[in-house]
Design goal:
By secondary structure, this protein is mainly beta. The chain has one domain: 7 Propeller (Methylamine Dehydrogenase, Chain H), CATH 2.130.10. Helices cover about 0% and strands about 50% of the residues. Strands 1-28-27-26 form a four-stranded antiparallel sheet, with no helix packed on it. A four-stranded antiparallel sheet has the order 2-3-4-5, with no helix packed on it. The chain is globular, with a radius of gyration of 18 Å.
């Protein structure tokens, strides 16, 4: 198939889609949004296999590394861990005091990191809901938190500041370091992605920009301005070849990470208002992107 060829358009949702996540096995996609439900479906056929009604509108969703569980976060202070096929609830996490912005499962499957309007980032046991550590007293809420591929670090943003936290194993405590402060013209950071080799961190910003940092030499290596509005979603392909981003300009953009240049713009969502979520297939061949109309496009990369 040619790049941009649509494999399927999933139309199971009746309202805007905020979260889409491809299962680690590659055989399932989970999605949710303002219809207060999570749908589990096949990316090849678009067939719905299961739906689950949730507490509230969905804002966060991630699969466990083994694909057996999903964590979901809402416009309220709760997060749930549950089975995507049986719907069985394993644990509800009550540590936050305000709506949830993001949730990220650790690569070893033991922990989940979540960020909230309550201006904390909390790390907790995925199977018990017991809090491990909280990063508190942030100067503003963090809209995104992401584990590094090796599970040694957490990247998170506060306004226009990018932080990296590392666990101190002897004390089981997290220490945070300010990585960079963006200039005013870039706005606030909305989304973060690690490269699969942990060499780079990329973030999408309010003012149409994507910023990339080299974590080895610890410096900013580039700023990309091919979007024309807020960048809400960003994700590295599992093979590290491309960086994909999506936003309010209704496009999904691809950057070639070997030459660091934009190579493709997906325009399939132009009849919608925005695209605010995307996810790669584990084999790096497809992207699933969700829009304001409740449609999710699965297309060839």
């Amino acid at each position: 198939m040619a790049r941009g060829t649509i494999q399927v358009i999933y139309k199971g949702h009746q309202s805007p889609v905020w979260v889409v996540a491809w299962a680690p096995t590659g055989s399932l996609i989970a999605s949710g949004g303002d219809d207060r439900s999570v749908h589990i479906w096949e990316p090849v056929t678009g067939k719905t296999l299961a739906t689950k009604d949730m507490h509230s509108n969905l804002q966060a969703l991630d699969w466990s590394p083994d694909g057996k569980y999903i964590v979901t976060g809402y416009y309220r202070e709760l997060l749930d861990v549950w089975s995507p096929l049986t719907g069985e609830l394993l644990v509800t996490y009550h540590g936050h005091s305000d709506e949830i912005f993001s949730a990220s499962w650790s690569p070893d499957g033991t922990s989940i990191a979540s960020s909230s309007m309550d201006r904390t980032i909390q790390i907790w046991h995925s199977m018990t809901g017991e809090m491990i550590q909280a990063i508190q007293d942030l100067w503003v809420e963090s809209r995104t938190v992401v584990w590094s591929p090796d599970g040694m670090y957490l990247a998170y943003a506060c306004g226009n500041e990018l932080y990296c936290a590392k666990v101190q194993e002897s004390q089981n405590q997290w220490s945070s370091q300010l990585i960079d402060t963006l200039e005013k013209q870039y706005g606030w950071i909305q989304c973060i992605a690690w490269s699969p080799n942990r060499h780079y961190i990329a973030c999408g910003c309010d003012e149409n920009a994507i910023i990339v940092w080299d974590t080895v030499v610890r410096k900013r290596i580039g700023a990309f301005h091919h979007h024309t509005s807020v960048v809400h979603a960003i994700a590295w392909s599992p093979d590290g070849t491309y960086l994909a981003s999506a936003g309010d300009d209704k496009t999904v953009q691809l950057i070639d990470t070997k030459q660091w240049r934009p190579v493709y713009t997906y325009l399939g969502h132009q009849n919608s208002w925005w695209v605010r979520t995307l996810s790669w297939s584990p084999d790096s061949h497809f992207i699933a992107s969700g829009d304001h109309d409740g449609n999710i496009h699965v297309w060839e990369v």
